[in-house]
């Protein structure tokens, strides 16, 4: 992790959604603790993978970073500027530098606007006139993302899922952002199309030096795309590390269980990896378990796990920057990595 | 060789829409033995789900014409009357779906929906049906089944709803279970649980399973045999190891190449299949994959674009529909696929 | 459910209160003076003042409204007309009849008119809607939809008058509609007497119900759980009624509840066309005679009917669809 | 009905007249000119006289061919607004009042419409003394209430005194003003409930006499006492405000059941002795009123004449214009029709405060296009041209036509222009107004009126006023209108009831009926003088002379029409007669055929 000042620095990020109800007067009776004390850093040009199962708060985190949602607590610093509770005016300069790519290719594009208008939209809104005009810039962007510039006057419904996702990417690049938050950008696509978009995002990151926060539930794609990965469970980061450390030397039981649950296409005759099967379902974020939130599904949970929430620290045996939040971290390397060694 | 439990011969399914005839399945044949699992893999629009509905005869007769042959235990389902099909559905053959929340009725309790199938086919009383439902819920691993039996589907979590649907499908101990992307909507940990459950149930009940998915990883985990579909046709078949380890068809190579793995090299970019899935309204001539196939020009005489390659099947049920010669396939496969460990 | 009903009833009372205050204010905005009617031909200023006093409209507006409010909750004493018990809506300006009495006397006619026509348009509307949905796209579907569309575009006062002229006067098939035969005394005459108004009033609503039933059924027939039900081997008929119909029922019940609420406020045109003495006819009289207490009574009846219909509809919807939790 | 008698009569007939189809040619058969087509003789109302004591003896003359029994079904648009005699002033309420209320005097109506004032409860039409300041009446024997108790002079006085109570504001006020000498009579006497009697009314139960001592001479008091507002009320059964719900009958029928706005049923009053009643027959066993159907509906039912409507009669909503031609054109329908002129006069009041020059007012009379207006109302069947203030049903009325309207009904614009030039008032601005919304007829007549005025050299400006607040606005003395559409109907058929309210200068005030605000000394003096002429014949002649002088010298109004109305009755109903006083059927003469 580069020593210089991080592009994005998030400490103690928290977001609780109030639940209303009660009789006879409606008042707040509880809160969905979607994100509960998140710390993460993204350096210039670095790609951070955020992975976890549904309900773990990764999308909410994405919306908090781009300030589509205002955090309940914690601090977000972007390029040295505290934007946690910044007003619309204060956010304006920052807004053009942080862009977002959404999951559903069909719902994220305005069906009544032409592709040209969609891509040049951000420029209009922020009043930016690139030399040579917005149209030329928009056509250029379409070309960059692998679409034919003549599609400038076509409408979204005339494109396939994959192509629409490319239009979304082109729109995100319109203001040449320094940070792009991609929320499940490929999970709605077919495998072959998925690969095309992942390659596109990778080349863009390499060529344009854009920092990415890549949110997904597919561990294989996250590994392929991001240099560093953070694993989330029920609103908290349970483990974060460089790619190789995390996939080869996962210390947190949940990370280990996640990796073992992924069905691998490279069927090998050797016995499959140590199979860890979690029982039950993710508990409700309305009243999460005390202490370590994974304890209800962890096979080695003790009273200590219930009493004291483990801090996200570099436990003994971890590489630099490899943090794990567990009282009894897993030991040794996984089966697969041994085989590969 | 005794007759296979389920055999599909030259199945064709076409929909008449305003814009013309959509040939969703264009001549599909396969067999399935008792107790074994056939994995059908293909991307959206490949015709995999249409096949399932054809087997159960659930297509709307006015707007779809289905021909060919579907023999279940020797009986052709396509010529069966609606009444005969109703006796088979849910009893001899049943189906589970991708989105359990939408597939379970929001207006009836889970117990009632499971019991309903049981009562229809066995004439059991309401009381017996309820007991059976509780039993099935316990069997699929739902905690406190005697309480949850009276809950509504929206009160279940994602994983539990999927289990409830499986309980409903298996309540009459069917010989054939058709699973249409049952795990796609689930988180990976829950998906693993469901796949284990299906495998255990198969051992216990000896059910033949047709498992349809677009995820090769799931196929690798659950299927005995694999059938790769593209543009409404089967392009490659064989056992799981044959298809996944020594794929013969360029499309299968492309699928494998598009999937990142947990431990493969990272700096090498994925090798995706260029272009877009074929339109079923006016499909490409000849081999439907040829516009996206990197090796089409390698076949002399451009036969790929003119005549569609037949599915040659050798003794063991292994087959590929491609004009490339076996020699060319071996050679191209080696440099196409990134170095795969073992 | 109980908490839901309590909260909504309190809300309803508040709404009725606001409506009553609004009606009071609007009444006095109109330039006409209710006292003139009861002041006779040689209307001297002194007599006019006396009449205003008798009617109780000589006090300032807020005081009048307060007296009226007290009357509703605690009853009120009128000089000469004696005590008017708790839900006292006052006495009509013109014929000094207790307003509550007038309304309760008229309500059975409006009730039987509304419920009767509701039965007709539900049976025909939903019936044709179901046929249209099952036979989707085919001839029967087109006929059912267009027939009900034509029906609904006809106007009551034309169809009603023509129908009455032929059916009652010319061919004597049906007796002339009149509400005198109460339901209890002579159901036969009551039924025959109201059959014509039911059919004519229902004409307008039938098309809505045909169209709505058809679209709701078509939508729920395409739901996944209907396909699952057939995959379980259930017969088409069971699937249709137990699943598809159940899915479609929610919206239909909602609209039905609101329509009945509206009808209970008095179907003015139908009552006038057929000479029925329902709440509708009463409201016309109230407006024409500048009769504030009667006007208030009628307005509140109509408002209460709609508000209650809303509450009932929400409650029933929650019963139909378990996913809906009553706040 | 809620609007006062005057408006009501006008509004309904306007509705009937107003919505007349604009038929170009005169409707129905029969020649043009004044003879209304298809109407019976027009002169039938001139016979108004005072009967003798013999005329006052019962029983009432038999109606030829009548038979007892059966039920009559009057159909009317609205319920009666009041049944308490002291609160009855609208003629609609009086039609049922005839059946259960009796006053000291009443009208004996011969077939054909001739009216004779006779003693009803009284033995005769009363004896006047002290130049009309004192009146005495003697009660007949054998007068009973529906419960069999005897009707005494105390009950008659009680009826009079109730007219002062605080809740009888709807009734007539003539007698009360005459007894106390002021219009604000309630400040003098508050009604019989304070235990005190009115000193100016003296009763002698033994001799069965009742004497009225008036502050102002009223030689026509015996006509006034025939109004239902002065009907008798039993002292023992007086339930004050509640009496309006269930009045006690001393007439041939009593009220059995009343469901408001729906129906009213009257059955025979067994204690009524026909021998004491010179006016009323009582053939049917009961009357069942049905309220609700409007004019058109009721007419269609009567035309269809089926399903019980054979015994029905149209009560108070006349045959509307749309059906006039059909009814008059079909023989059997015409045979089941009764018609007559509505009491009173429709006219255009000229605001004498703004149009001070008589010549201009006379020019207006000449120019006014009566023929075009009547054609818009539906031609001759709609009624006759009016040229005098007194309507045909007024005793002693003499017909005259000062401005040649009968010879030139289309208006003599040339003469009018000449008059204007003479008065140097060419181009005189005239602001004309009428009630907008009551009926669309006036939106059409304004066109012909404006055209005629322009041709006659006026500068006409039309400013209609919304019908529901029309009377409030034009009865303001400082209104900005020059010519105002108006109508007036008398309460009893003597000249006083028309000329005094419309032209007595002393009554001019906001809300008063002297809309033309004529305030001329000689007119005021003449009204005061004629009002006290004791001898009826002399009084009538005086009123007729005054009528002519006012029109000739002052021309304060432009008379328009005496409107005609048609009523249908079922073919099983006999004895249908048009009541000239209340413009409806005379219910107590009807009988149900076998």
UniProtKB/TrEMBL annotation, chain B:
Membrane topology qualifier: Peripheral membrane protein
Cellular localisation: Cell membrane
Keyword Ion transport: no
Principal place of residence: membrane
Domain of life: Bacteria
Protein name: ABC transporter ATP-binding protein
NCBIfam families xrefs: oligo_HPY
Record-linked InterPro entries: AAA+_ATPase (IPR003593), ABC_Ni/Peptide_Import (IPR050388), ABC_transporter-like_ATP-bd (IPR003439), ABC_transporter-like_CS (IPR017871), Oligopep_ABC_C (IPR013563), P-loop_NTPase (IPR027417)
Keywords: ATP-binding, Cell membrane, Membrane, Nucleotide-binding, Transport
A molecular-function term among this protein's GO annotations: ATP binding
Family the UniProt entry places it in: Belongs to the ABC transporter superfamily.
From TrEMBL, chain C:
Domain ABC transmembrane type-1: start-end pairs: 107-317
Localisation: Cell membrane
Its membrane topology: Multi-pass membrane protein
Lineage of the organism: Bacteria, Bacillati, Actinomycetota, Actinomycetes, Kitasatosporales
Swiss-Prot/TrEMBL keywords: Cell membrane, Membrane, Transmembrane, Transmembrane helix, Transport
Stated family: Belongs to the binding-protein-dependent transport system permease family.
Transmembrane segments: 12-30, 111-134, 146-168, 188-207, 243-264, 294-320
Domain of life: Bacteria
PANTHER family per the UniProt record, alphabetical: DIPEPTIDE TRANSPORT SYSTEM PERMEASE PROTEIN DPPB-RELATED
The name this protein goes by in its record: ABC transporter permease
